[in-house]
Amino acid sequence: MVTAKSSNPDQFDRASELKAFDDTKAGVKGLVDAGITEVPRIFHQPPDKIQKTSVSGDTQFSIPVIDLEGVKKDPITRKEIVEKVGNGSRKWGFFQVVNHGIPESVLEEMKDGIRRFFEQDLEVKKQCYTRDYSKPVVYNSNFDLYTGLAVNWRDSFFSLMAPNPPKMEDLPAVCRDIMVDYSKQVQNLGYLLLELLSEALGLKPDHLKDMDCGRGLAMLCHCYPACPQPELALGISKHADNDFVTVLLQDHIGGLQVLHEDKWIDVPPTPGALVINIGDLLQLSPSLISNDVYKSVEHRVLANSVGPRVSVACFFSTSVMSRLYGPIKELLSEENPPKYRETTVRDYVTYSNGRGLDVAGTSPLLHFRL
């Protein structure tokens, strides 16, 4: 059992504490359910990582909200939306979309499904607690539990939903139907976003889609229980996503922040909206792919005292793990030479995940820079 405070602070055995926490298979929620009033030391963030100065309510630093209404019907409207998506991806790497085609009832049921999963009896959840990511569903706390600087105050479950989705019976009974429905609708949105991003780069609409950038879809569902000392912990440490594009559904509690011009900017929950962010692979591709035209942006989630906060991150990548990705040739010139070497998605993700979140203090992209 993880204790809130060692009897002798000088005898803190981090490795043993991590293993003890992992062995409970109860996650952070288990600690909260046990009634702890102090955050265990393994969750304490280094002081330089925990600073929470942020900017909010300032129009100069507000995440763009893009209305997709009419994007498939009106060429003039589509051109305007393409420009907004391009600007948001270049300047921020983050934006929100509304009128995206996914009914609000589906969004609400997806959030409710996550809550149902985490509210299950522990003995039921333990059946899918694992660190083997080849399993159809992976439930655990912190994929980088043993490599991160500090344990993040969250539990998660993960599943690859495309192109080869799990069998229905392998998905959690309390949320399997909505997982399948939501993933299909998000994938349609993902294809549209890839079209808009392609057009904003001056490419044909199907360019990124034809590169398999949206063929693979991974769903990662988070629960951030209420934290008794949120000033000591983080929900998720600073990081950028190691995919092409991420579609995030968040609830009303908030806590998501992006690092913009050395300031932490709040991404306020907007009813019916989805948060879109550019991943490392799209930057690599001259982002890696976009060759730094688009930028992946570091972001984090604060611990909160009112939770549980829930969110669903859908990561668009590829199932063709051996395919080489690098700067798009059509975007290169003598004035704009390639900035990154080619790599496979498998090698990039393996390198990125192996470092743990915010451990090295630098982007994994630098490892692939020419």
UniProtKB/TrEMBL annotation:
Residues of the Fe2OG dioxygenase domain: 215-319
GO molecular function, one term: metal ion binding
Protein keywords: Iron, Metal-binding, Oxidoreductase
Cofactors (names): Fe cation
Family, per entry: Belongs to the iron/ascorbate-dependent oxidoreductase family.
Protein name as it appears in the record: 1-aminocyclopropane-1-carboxylate oxidase homolog 1-like isoform X1
Species of provenance: Herrania umbratica
Phylogenetic placement of the source organism: Eukaryota, Viridiplantae, Streptophyta, Embryophyta, Tracheophyta
